[in-house]
Amino acid sequence: MYPNIDTKVPILPDLKKSPRLQVLDTGLMNYTLGIQTEIIGSDDLNKVHQGTIIEHLIGQELLSAQYNALSSLNFWVREKKTSTAELDYIYLFESKLVPIEVKSGKDGALKSLHQYMDNAPHDMAVRFYAGKFHLTQALTPSGKPYRLLNLPYYLGSQTEKYIAWLSSQTPTSPHS
């Protein structure tokens, strides 16, 4: 899959940038990498193979829940001379590109997500992590408020339902 470079629809992959591979079979990928033992003994899959495994699994869940034969996974990158940023996935929901990060760190460590949200024409974002479900009223370093829906990894297949729920919640106000 090729990256998207905008925060608004339509999704237009930038074919000049490097694509990211999404292997069809997670088990075969784990076997090829030789990390089966590491996975079995882990209390957080984000710690295994630098987070690639859980990111891959969430991608598989997102893809499996799509019904359109032309559906695909999408991700976002921003490249500037001073810095680069990348989001794990962007999810098309009601003409909005909702960013999705797969992390275990604190809300403040989501630098790429903050950069995306500064330019997004909406205030919704999703983070999958090893914690419990909760909704955070987040703020980018530049001061834009947004709603960050924190979901446990196991809810990956329910992303559409939770984004719909988030969309129905009261949006953040600039003074909250």
Explain what this protein looks like in three dimensions.
There is one protein chain. The chain is of the alpha/beta class. The protein has a single domain (26-168), classed as 3-Layer(aba) Sandwich (Trna Endonuclease, Chain: A, domain 1). It has helices at residues 26-33, 36-40, 52-64, 111-119, 159-168; strands at 76-79, 84-87, 89-93, 96-102, 124-129, 134-139, 145-152. The strands form two sheets. The chain has a five-stranded mixed β-sheet with strand order 3-4-5-7-6, sandwiched between helices. The protein has a two-stranded antiparallel ribbon with strand order 1-2. A hairpin with a 5-residue loop joins strand 6 (134-139) and strand 7. It starts with 25 loop residues before the first helix and ends in an 8-residue tail after the last helix.
Features:
176 residues, alpha/beta, Trna Endonuclease, Chain: A, domain 1, 5-stranded mixed beta sheet, two-stranded antiparallel ribbon, 5 helices, 7 strands
Gist of the model:
This protein has 176 residues and is an alpha/beta fold. 26% of the residues lie in helices and 23% in strands.
